[in-house]
């Protein structure tokens, strides 16, 4: 996938910098991003997610994040959020305050920051970031990006186009949500050694997504991708599986690029 500003025919009006904000269960992280390269232009700033993670509380933190950076006046804001989002509205929410269901996130963010904003699912942002700037940037075909963290996030990119809100972490596995058994947090909660997790619930999950989607490449992100040597070689699927490259910055870079693409 190529970035729209790396092309020599770019017009001078195209957005060069956007602020990416990634909202997670424990931290809200942000940084200004160079849209041509995906590089963070300052050290990322992290604010802990409030225990009571309501729309008002999170909106206030997003405003604080925007004010923290000295941004160009035309820099848009892209927000990655851990839920499916249809036309700005949260459809359901697994790992933040339940009051988010039905809320228009795009409105909450634009009211909080008074700039152009664009919102998307957190795994979609990470996948978009990896496809534009990271592990999958040279790849064509069907790319599945999975983020293993508190839940399991998914991004499906088919010939450079993101198919949003795939929510493959909620596929049914053993009668429940797959993410409840196969996420990184469930490995810790169930005190599973890496090999037991990889050969058990993770293999079952990967076999299922491989069977359903026949991807050309699977990229795995989330905190556990740092320790990929401990479990990735144990997985057996038909396509290559590689670790994410941008690690914790994928969501920030992807959200910023999405905002630049959709607003600029
Ligand atoms: C949510 C997804 C999110 C994933 C990772 C899931 O529980 O439903 O929208 O992408 O967690 O945060």
From TrEMBL:
GO molecular function annotations of the record: kinase activity
Coiled coil: none
InterPro entries attached to this UniProt entry: ATPase_NBD, ROK
Domain of life: Bacteria
One Pfam family cited in the UniProt record for this chain: ROK
UniProt record similarity statement: Belongs to the ROK (NagC/XylR) family.
Protein name as catalogued: Polyphosphate glucokinase
